[in-house]
Design a protein that fits this description.
Blueprint lengths: L12 H13 L6 E5 L2 E5 L5 H17 L4 E4 L5 E3 L4 E3 L3 E5 L16 E5 L5 H15 L4 E5 L4 E11 L2 E11 L3 E4 L2 E4 L10
Parallel strand pairs: 7-8
Antiparallel strand pairs: 1-2, 3-6, 4-5, 6-7, 8-9, 9-10, 11-12
């Protein structure tokens, strides 16, 4: 069993304050909250049908090709690194079932990959914020599906830069093509697009 990194590395007072604010708002304010390296993100919009259908189809396609001990998980809990000051909730997490045991957030370093479906209301959260935060969290592979454009990208090979850890490799794909994420290849055929794009 792996749990989120312990608090032996100190978390900042700013992160602690944001975490407390998030906990007090979660049950009273609609939407999804995440804490990024640069502050708090609140997506007030409920996910659209194409977003949720994409998550469901991609998750099922992974589960058909992954070993039984691994899971394509969508939903809570989040992934969190308190000392780094980041709390994220990927649309899909490729993770070993054994690493899901325990209480609290998942350790982001146990993820095999994080998969996001771009939100119509806040695409920069997926294309900019998570592109910055996931390598900081040690997530080895980050895949983005964008129903606005029918395209996506898979990022991998974390390396150090003057701005911190970043992905060195990016492979773009078009809906309809097969795509390899981590070590599994799935079809992107038949994924929905947002209307009026």
């Amino acid at each position: 069993m792996t749990i989120a990194p312990d608090a032996a590395r100190s978390e900042s007072p700013q992160y602690r304050a944001m975490r407390e604010a998030l906990e007090s708002l979660e049950d009273t304010v609609p939407g999804k909250f995440e804490i990024t390296k640069t502050g708090m993100v609140h997506d007030m919009m409920a996910p659209s049908a194409p977003h949720e259908l994409t998550v469901a189809r991609v998750r099922r396609r992974f589960e058909k090709v992954m070993p039984e001990a691994l899971v394509a998980h969508s939903g809570a809990p989040d992934v969190e690194d308190r000392p780094e000051g980041i709390l994220r909730l990927p649309d899909i997490m490729l993770i070993a079932e054994a690493d899901m045991e325990g209480q609290g957030s998942f350790d982001p370093r146990t993820l095999l990959a994080a998969v996001e479906v771009v939100s119509r209301s806040n695409p920069d959260n997926d294309w900019v914020g998570k592109m910055r935060d996931y390598p900081l969290l040690g997530v080895p592979v980050y895949a983005v599906f964008d129903p606005r454009t029918g395209t996506g990208a898979v990022m991998s090979d974390i390396h150090e830069t003057p701005d911190g850890p970043r992905y060195a490799t990016r492979r773009d794909f078009l809906y309809g093509e097969d795509v390899t994420i981590a070590q599994w290849t799935i079809s992107t055929d038949g994924l929905p697009r947002y209307e009026d794009q």
